[in-house]
Amino acid sequence: MDDEATQVCALAEDDGTAVRGLTPADPAAGPRADCVLCGEPTEHPADHPGSTLCAVCTWQQAQRIACSG
Prior knowledge:
Blueprint: H1 3-6, E1 32-34, E2 41-45, H2 55-66
Antiparallel strand pairs: 1-2
Organism: Kitasatospora paranensis
Protein name: DksA C4-type domain-containing protein
């Protein structure tokens, strides 16, 4: 069987790797929008338009999209 066809993409075991290097939101900036998938606060302000995702869900969604090929 072809090795390329048998490769399986998996999400990393450590969700914390998704948020490494990100800076925390400034508390003086006001309330934060909640993630539409998990409900955790995001880096976006509450009045940010569109669907907001937290850093972990953004990272996991990118993993899913990259592996859906």
